[in-house]
Amino acid sequence: MIPAGSLLAASGLRKAYGLTTALDGADFSIHPGEVVAVMGPSGSGKSTLLHCLAGILRPDAGTVRYDGRDLSALSDAERSALRRSEFGFVFQFGQLVPELTCLENAALPLRLTGTKRKDAEATALRWLEHLEVADVRHHRPGQISGGQQQRVAVARSLVTTPRVIFADEPTGALDSLNGERVLELLTKAARETRAAVVLVTHEARVAAYSDREVVVRDGRARDMAGVHGAA
Amino acid sequence: MARPEPTTGPDSPGTDSTGPDSPKPDRPRPTGPTGPAAWARDLAMGARFAVTGGRESLLRTALVAIGVGLGVALLAIAASVPHLSAAREHRENARSVNDEGNSRSIKASDRTLLYQAVTTDFHDKPVEGALLRPEGPLAPLPPGVSAMPAPGEMVVSPALDDLLRSADGKLLRERFPYRVAGVIGEAGVMGPDELFYYAGSDRIRPDAPHGPGIHDATVRIDRFGHEEGGDPVSPVLVVLMNMTCVVLLLPIGIFIATAVRAGGERRDRRLAALRLVGTDIRATRRIASGEALCGALLGLVVGAGVFLVLRDFASGITIRDVAVSPADLVPSPALAALIAVAVPAVAVLVTLITLRRVTIEPLGVMRHTAPRRRRLWWRLLIPAAGLALLLPLFGGVTMDPYAGDASTYQVAGGGILVLVGIAALLPWLLEAGVARFRGGPVSWQLATRRIESNPGPAARAVGGITVAMAGAIAIQMLFAGVQGEFVEDLPTHSQMMGVYRGSTPAEARSYTNSFRATQGVRDALVSVEQFAHKSDRPATGFTGVTVGDCDTLRRLARLDSCRDGDVFIADAPDRSAELLPGTALSMEDRPYERDGRKPRTYEWTIPASARTVQAVEDPLGRYHRGVLATPSTIDVAALPDPSTEVAIQLEPGNLEAVERVRNTAASIDPLMRVHRMGGVRKESNYAMIQQALLVGTGLLLALIGAGLAATTLEQLRERRRLMSTLAALGARRTSVVGSVLWQTAIPVALGTALAVAGGLGLGWVMLKVVNGTVRDWLGFLPVVGVGVGMIALVTTLSLPAVHHMTRPNGLRTE
């Protein structure tokens, strides 16, 4: 049953890699502007859930609906276009293109949508300023710290003003101080733009930045709102 | 004395100091082995990682082994050339006979044999052999022959035996009125497809005269085996050979140096993990060397296997019209040992040089990719040094084989330095080139930035083919520039000619009739010729004297009337008369036929009654200018050096007629050989070098193609996660694939431009060295087309892998 008003919702997701079951009937939903922390131990299926929600993986069974559309029914090109224009991504290690400058990295999603380089870089610069890393815009990822790299990655996820941001362990490679600053900036920026955030983490302190927690265990997602009370 | 190393390696016992059994402070801390023992231990550990480090390690080792193996196989082929040449020469010498003057001093006995070399052609392939007439029961047997063929019998090479038994050989069977009594063994044939025979004869005589067209007279021998001196090789051909070797071997070296770097990034990450558990930097280098050494040694094994497989295809290669025997393709022991030592040494050396650019720390690998621009000056010094070696040789190498030293090492050294310089310039050109590329679509930006940040892999990927293309362009220019000296373009395929020893006019008439009666012959003319000069001008005033009946002479000139006793002076339409009635002519035999005798001379004066007539074309389109005499005017028997010239015109395209004419010639005399005209006739050494270049370039391109495919796939694997990230961000497949293609196309374009410039420059310089001229500045286009086509093919073949690796679900590997 998909909750009313959901921007992105999944029901009965199943996904197996060979003999290993990663998701076994997982349900999930998120509303516009909501920050949901997906928690669980290593190997519980958190990242697989995120990849299915983002249309990166096709689930073996179950449905993912975004804004009323069934992602499974979309072609690869349509799902790519969706990721380009509607979704943003932050990964654990930033995953920046090492050869591009920070400004070019942040501008990359806009350039992929066909925006002219100058316009894309102007927008990216504003986001880099917002995330307090404008001073390293001409540096390459290898020349800056991990925390700065992750802020550039957050800026990259926001330049297209996405409606959903998928963050997979965004602070996993950072110290606590840097991690918290990144989370602050990410959630603040998301709330300003009314973007929903799917925040995959196994750290409780990270979950504190969320409106709601979903725990994945043995391939099943359990909404903790009913356990702790409404968010 | 070796200093003990502070940290020894992953097996070091020094890491247990916090445990309950930690050594007492006053007890000496155990250290690992030092010096050679440390080397041995770390090399062994590296080798163990190479083969037992899981799927990734095995894949890397396999890539190195296959790459090195392919290079080693080609080097082994190159190392086999000396033995191949020596084995063929040995067999050729073993069956040769001494046909020089001293053979005439041998007296007839029961140990002697009369020998007459004889050659014909079948489908434009020479069929060589000899007529044998033993003078006693102890006459020597040719190599590979177990019993002397009796008159009317022949022993044949295996290939000739097959041909004679086949339907294709029907026309050749008609030429040989002999029964096949046996097959010549391996010791008596040059190669598996050689057409060779010995036929028994009871007609050849020791005093059979020499004559034009018969390369050897009948000689008496008491043994087989004679060292042929061989013709000296033109210095220009030596230059061609040197450059061909350089062009073929240098890219193999580059390829091997590139192959041993396969999977380097993954290896560096593994070394970082070893650093974390206490391995010091020197030990990591030794371990990396061990891995490289293991890959190279496996490469030697793979190379030996590939060589053995390729060897079986050797019979597809022909040298001087005879296929190479696989058994002759054996690497020279010294060169094989050099390969076995040099290849692993190169592997270790390259690994150590590569690691100099990397700092492997316990927490990761730091690449020295800081913007330290590549320097141009020393890269320019290398080709400049090459040119400095070549420039003094300008005009110094001539076609004259007796002109002396061709400065072999200087030419080869200069060529090597120029080509190495091109390889050294490529990374600089790539870096400087892409730094100027701005703007463009995302795929272009990704590719140019990737190359700009680290042009090394891109330069290595196309370095081999750049050098190969540059070398091939230079060689191609050199070949084209000197081609005229070694290649003769013949006018048509439907004409045949032969030169035979002297005949009487009546015999010539009968030969003409025989040829005219042969199926497929349109026109034929056999005439008796004698070379002459004006008696008062021995050094100049040369002319020809043709003796024939009126029918024959009418075919050579416009005669109003003719009867025996007439003499004519024939001139070509565009030439004025040079001979006049009453001119005294001297006719002599050729100096090399005299064996120290005084020249035989026949003096003759053109009768006052001789009439000047206009020559017409003979069946070969030639004009017989000079004297045309009827039989009664000249004593043909007294002519010192008459020759019988055969000119035949065939029905165009009738290949059977060619063989029928040869059969007719053989029925007249096995020693009469008629050649088919037309096509291109090449000097044999020139043809051999050109073929070596063709075969070598083919193998080299296959090698480079395989290497390029492996390099491309390896780079894709290294960047798999990044490409998956881009796909997850929503990048179109075309953008990601486009960036991969640009990453190949940009280095290829710049490498090709460098190869063209360098190749044309080197070709021009080499032509200046051999006094040649550039005949075709655009002759490089086919070379570039083949090179670029090969790269396009490899890139196309790698596209499925690119598609596979650019799926966003590649992120799952995290």
Q: Using CB atoms under 8 Å apart, which protein chain pair has the greatest interface?
A: A-B, 33 and 27 residues
Q: Classify the beta-strand content of chain B into a percent band.
A: 5-15%
Quote the average pLDDT of chain B. 78
Structural class of chain A: alpha/beta
Alpha carbon gyration radius of chain A: 17 Å
What is the rounded distance between the termini of chain A? 20 Å
Number of domains of chain B: 3
Tell me how many strands of chain A there are. 10
Oligomer: heterodimer
The arrangement of helices and strands of chain A along the chain is: EEEHEEHEHHHEHEHEEH
How does the major sheet of chain B shape up?
A: 10 strands, mixed
Q: Roughly what is the average pLDDT of chain A, rounded to an integer?
A: 84
Helix content of chain B: 40-55%
Strand order of the largest sheet of chain A: 6-7-8-3-9-10
Unreliable stretches of chain A? 226-231
* Record field, number of beta strands of chain B: 22
Describe the structure in brief.
The complex is a heterodimer of chains A (231) and B (814). By secondary structure, chain A is of the alpha/beta class.
Keywords:
heterodimer, A: 231 residues, alpha/beta, six-stranded mixed beta sheet, 10 strands, disordered C terminus, B: 814 residues, alpha+beta, 3 domains, ten-stranded mixed beta sheet, 19 helices, 48% helix, elongated
General description of the model:
The complex is a heterodimer of chains A (231) and B (814). Chain A is an alpha/beta fold and 231 residues long. Helices cover 35% and strands 25% of the residues of chain A. Chain A has eight helices and ten strands. In chain A, the strands form two sheets. In chain A, strands 6-7-8-3-9-10 form a six-stranded mixed sheet, with helices on both faces. In chain A, strands 2-1-4-5 form a four-stranded antiparallel sheet, covered by helices on one side. Chain A starts with 7 loop residues before the first strand and ends with a helix. The relative contact order of chain A is 0.20. Mean pLDDT of chain A is 84; it is low at 226-231. With 814 residues, chain B is an alpha+beta fold. Chain B has three domains: 43-81 and 233-487 and 684-813, no CATH class; 97-221, no CATH class; 495-677, no CATH class. Chain B contains 19 helices and 22 strands. In chain B, strands 12, 13, 14, 15, 16, 17, 18, 19, 20 and 21 form a ten-stranded mixed sheet that branches. In chain B, strands 4-3-5-2-1-6 form a six-stranded mixed sheet. In chain B, a hairpin with a 7-residue loop joins strand 13 and strand 14. The two termini of chain B are 49 Å apart. Classes of the chains: A alpha/beta (231), B alpha+beta (814). The A-B interface holds A 17, 47-48, 51, 54, 56-57, 76-77, 80-85, 87, 89, 91-92, 95, 97-100, 104, 108-109, 111-112, 117, 140, 142, 156 and B 369, 439, 442, 445-446, 449-450, 452-454, 721-722, 725-733, 735, 808-809, 811-812, 814.
